[in-house]
Amino acid sequence: MSEAISLHRQYLAGDFSLVDRLSQHLTAVQAHSHLNAFVRLFPETSREQAEQIDRRRADGQPLGLLAGLIVAIKDNLNYKGQPLTCASKILEGYRAPYHAAVVERLLAEDALIIGQTNMDEFAMGSSTENTIYGPAINPHDAQRVAGGSSGGSAAAVAAGLVDLALGSDTGGSIRQPAAFCGAVGLKPSYGRVSRYGLAAYASSLDQIGPIGKSVADVALALKVIAGADRRDATATAQPVDDYPAKLSEQPGKTPTIGLPRQFFQDGLDPQINAAIEQLCDRLKQQGVSFREIDLPLSDYAIACYYLIAVAEASSNLARYDGVRYGYRAEAGDLENMYIRTRSEGFGDEVKQRIILGTYVLSSGYYDAYYRKAQQVRRLIKEEYQQAFAEVDLLLTPTTPTAAFRLQEKLDDPLQMYLSDIYTVTANLIGGCAISVPCGTTKEGLPIGVQLIGPPFRESDLLQGAALIERTLHAF
Ligand code: GLN
Questions:
Q1: Pairwise CA distance, residues 354 & 127, whole Å
Q2: Full-prediction pTM beyond 0.90?
Q3: Among 120, 121, 122, which Cα is nearest to 154's?
Q4: Is 206 in the pocket of ligand 1 (CB under 6 A)?
Q5: Which residue, 64, 474, 63, 3, is CA-closest to 218?
Q6: Residue 333: exposed, middle, or buried by beta-carbon count in 10 A (0-12, 13-18, 19+)?
Q7: pLDDT value at position 1?
């Protein structure tokens, strides 16, 4: 059974008080302050909530699915009354006027949200180093990054500071840090989870999802956060399965899994390749059949992703003008106020992307870059549709390397961007994808294996991921 579900049951049975558990976890967060996983804690609010939940338990009132559990959210999800910065100076002084839809849903199920986690500024990055708070640190090696952009959420889960954490994934930001830290990270299909109250980065790619210690834990979190929301027109009315229940059902058949040839070529660390080969051998012994899949457009995925993401970002970030949100620079006139606010408020990576995004949307270059990228996106989507006509799921590495060293890629944006090479396509096609721990390198760094499924096939994806987890535990 899932660790989270059994904790929840122990809580219902009266095995511990939430107030006590909260103070233990807050102490653990302090003891792990070197990880820099949290940017903000809510000690008073969460203490009041813990007391209230404990009281309701004592009174025999019904409790939500997450009662007893400790949760964190990324610093790009609005929590009413608390600051929200997206790890950027430009949001200095801003306070959330409302809860994000996912926060409402977590609270409605009695999750105890203890704070917000470190991230790359506006979710732009792969290492949680582009942040005004200083980098998040990998719990397995203090010299290495936690991954990004949801690095704080992944580090918090991996270090046991919380049971579950939410991140956001535009091109890999849940799965890549989960892989680097040895946690499970799920990017739901586009539209599965309401984005209401998520600070937008690239709206056609962004999706909120959970990071947890096991597949069953993220299945539980998904059940809570998924579903239609009239405040986000892209949040689908497609039915939400009882994902944890699906995991205890015997799957109808063992899945057919595709291995995309292009994901196992140059640039992949041989140790990761070997770990995945070994996993596939063991899965074969469980009756899984594998098929090699050709996805020749994979070579264009990174370029396509970074054109679309920066274009959408340049438009979304236009709202931070010194008038409507947060930080405002002193200046004699309006135009200089805009210029100085944005020059002082945004970090270098964000500025670089706004400039690139504005360029690819400008009238002379729109057709050559932005429109072309949209066309390539459509072709990639069709290529995946064909693949999913042959196989149920695709299995790939999550990342080409294990966690890299702090600073290692900061001056080389292309190298940084390439760490998303295996994750961005799931966002481009709107599919669902998950990273599951798959052993460690000889240096002891976690390795992640990724499963990708077609849009809205989370139940199949989670069953496949649980099979991987069981298979690895059996050896
Ligand atoms: N690293 C990718 C980027 O910088 C993905 C980020 C994300 O998923 N938010 O755009």
A1: 19
A2: yes
A3: 120
A4: no
A5: 3
A6: exposed
A7: 59
Domains and CATH numbers, the chain: 1-475 (3.90.1300.10)
User: Which residues are known to be catalytic?
Assistant: 74, 149, 173
Structure tokens at 307: 């054109």
How confident is the model over 419-459, as pLDDT tens digits? 999 999 999 999 999 999 999 999 999 999 999 999 999 99
Cis peptide upstream of residue 17 (ω within 30 degrees of 0):
no
Q: Which ligand 1 atom minimizes the distance to the CA of 123?
A: 9
Q: Looking at ligand 1, which atom is closest to the CA of residue 170?
A: 8
Beta carbons of 175 and 74 less than 8 angstroms apart: no
- Measured CA to CA, the distance from residue 427 to residue 438 in angstroms comes to 22
Residue among 156, 126, 121 at smallest CA distance from 422: 126
Q: What average pLDDT does this structure show over 317-339?
A: 96
- Tens of pLDDT, residue by residue over 43-100, are 999 999 999 999 999 999 999 999 999 999 999 999 999 999 999 999 999 999 999 9
- What per-residue string of b and e applies to 4-29 under the rule 16 or more CB within 10 Å gives b? bbebbeebeeeeebbbebbeebbeeb
Q: State the distance between the two ends of the chain, measured CA to CA, in whole angstroms.
A: 19
CA–CA dist 240, 146 (Å, integer): 31
How many angstroms separate the alpha carbon of residue 1 from the centre of ligand 1? 32
Q: For 124-159, what is each residue's pLDDT tens digit?
A: 999 999 999 999 999 999 999 999 999 999 999 999
Angle at CA 164, nearest 5°, toward 256 and 279?
30
Distance, CA of 24 to chain centre:
26
Q: Can you tell me which atom of ligand 1 is nearest the CA of 427?
A: 8
| Ligand 1 lined by 169 (C-beta under 6 Å) | yes
Angle between helices 458-473 and 270-285 (to 10 degrees): 100
Using only C-alpha atoms, what is the Rg of the chain?
21
Q: What's the pLDDT at 414?
A: 87
pLDDT band at 251 (very low <50, low <70, confident <90, very high): low
Ligand 1 neighbourhood includes 309 CB (under 6 angstroms) = yes
Rounded Cα distance between 243 and 212, Å, is 14
Alpha carbon nearest to ligand 1 atom 10, residue: 124
Percent of the chain at pLDDT above 90? 95
Probe ligand 1: pick from 86, 88, 126, max atoms within 8 Å of CB?
126
Task: Provide the H-helix boundaries in 175-318.
Answer: 175-181, 215-225, 243-248, 270-285, 301-316
